[in-house]
From TrEMBL:
TM segment ranges: none
Pfam families: ACAS_N, AMP-binding, AMP-binding_C
UniProt record similarity statement: Belongs to the ATP-dependent AMP-binding enzyme family.
Protein name: Acetate--CoA ligase
Amino acid sequence: MSNYHIKHLEEYFQVYRKSVRNPEAFWEEIAEEHFLWRKKWDNVLSWDFSKPEVKWFENAKLNITENCIDRHLTTRGEKTAILFEPNNPNEEAQHISYYELHKRVCKMANVLKENGVKKGDRVCIYLPMIPELAVSLLACARIGAIHSVVFAGFSSNALATRINDSDCKLVITSDGSFRGKKSIDLKGIVDVALNDCPGVKTVLVAKRTNAEITMVEGRDKWLQPLLDEAYGDCVAEIMDAEDPLFILYTSGSTGTPKGMVHTTGGYMVYTAYTFKNIFQYKENDIYWCTADIGWITGHSYIVYGPLANGATTVMFEGVPSYPDFGRFWEVVEKHKVTQFYTAPTAIRALAKENMDFVENHDLSSLKVLGSVGEPINEEAWHWYNNNVGKNNSPVVDTWWQTETGGIMISPIPYVTPTTPTYATLPFIGIQPALMDENGQEVKGNQVEGRLCIKYPWPSIARTIWGNHERYRDTYFSAYKDKYFTGDGALRDGVGYYRITGRVDDVIIVSGHNLGTAPIEDTINEHPAVAESAIVGFPHDVKGNALYGYVILKEFGETRDRDNLRNEINQQITEHIGPIAKLDKIQFVTGLPKTRSGKIMRRILRKIASNDTGNLGDISTLLNPEIVKEIMDNSL
Ligand code: WT7
């Protein structure tokens, strides 16, 4: 028997040992016993991190939607697959059964086909958290099209960049979206983006807000009438295990966003297996992840992982603060949610509000509390554990990345004893390593280093779309034959991992991964700006907030500073999205630079964090005198 469901600590250690002693045999057994393959693999794994190349389940054939939907129809046809909770609490929730999901996905798949989408084509999905979003992902997978979901909070500029990078020929969007009290003109954003996207031939528009929008003739089509007419069954395209399933963009520390490519077989196996264990999912549980499907968390742990296990997965359209700060807990009570998975930034925001918002709701259905996206600080961990979990639902702090596809380091609830702020132990099959500055692995416990992974796991991203060299340079060149995560970590006396944060120029704001370079590039486009540098500084709700140091051109010096600040943030909102806005902008006459011209962000970070006691050696700077000026005028 395979070890699909781990139930106690001894078993974890035993299965872990097995999974690292012979990973191929281990994953073969899991894959064989728990999934539907049209043809089995010739070889479980071949890999070479120097190229890098990783292939799992070579030459196996499958369709992931048959695993996520069809195979449940005989046993769970009437069971709710997706439980949709609308933004407005007075609008009725929708219970979409597996049977209904099958029909909706097939219809959508047929609409895509009728609009010329073929296997291997890229489809951009820019939708709010409504059922059509999940259905669109699955419809693409049904016919072998590669979906590229762009979070519907991104600006038209960011959307256009992503559409063009992967040559999407069709976009699925909606007339608008609801977020709390606001409604947002999504279609308008798409229209602006498409001015720069000549490759897009068709836009399918779902109706959500009934806002008045313009439909471009010959390009834009209302989705619903097409779905109404479409046939309710669609033969699943037979895919190779290594065929791309989707592209999802993540920011890098430099350059354009990276289109991480995930493939089919390994991704399915790993997301399903982690979901089962890390949420201790049992039949009849009601699982809720509050992320947006526009992020990897939503792909893996709202859509694919839960559905592959035949689970009921909640999709929430709204925000934690609407109609009031009790909304999360109201929804938990209403749907008797058993597993709840959210981000530290949401926990910190809710912890600031009146305790009545939590206490007025019956949260006794909860069994597991998940956290993801950034390090969870001690205070937030305890608040979550005490007030939401009533010391009765383990907090699972799950560390992973867009690139890893699935959770990598995490406690298994009711199995791994938890320690606040620790992601604890590597999941089954994951072989972490901590590296020192000399590129040597730091062995033993009570040590710190840069976090790498030594051996492939099934859901590792295979490449960056259109740029394999960048993939190699970013993840496989820092340490020989290892995947470098970009994070620092420590391993305590019992071997538990604690993630200490990014060691590169990526800043995590409210759990969102933001690269400094694209933001700086945007600021530098302002006509009055000569140069800029962005750093993160601690923020009690967002985890990190952005602090910008801006050098003005000579004529800019005469401009009103607050107006300039607003214009810079406006420009960031337009080019990237509101999540990348700066909390503080300090105008400076220079930036601390090394003799080779590299900005010393370390120093700026310390100043921004009011941690100027030990700035380190600044005498080697090209312009050491600038440090005092920046400190004296620090905001
Ligand atoms: C980066 C990846 C994986 C889904 C959401 C983010 C940080 C993520 C944790 C955690 C400490 C965490 C890391 C990582 N991060 N989870 N539990 N503890 N840090 O995906 O946007 O690709 O960001 O988020 O720095 O490298 P992402």
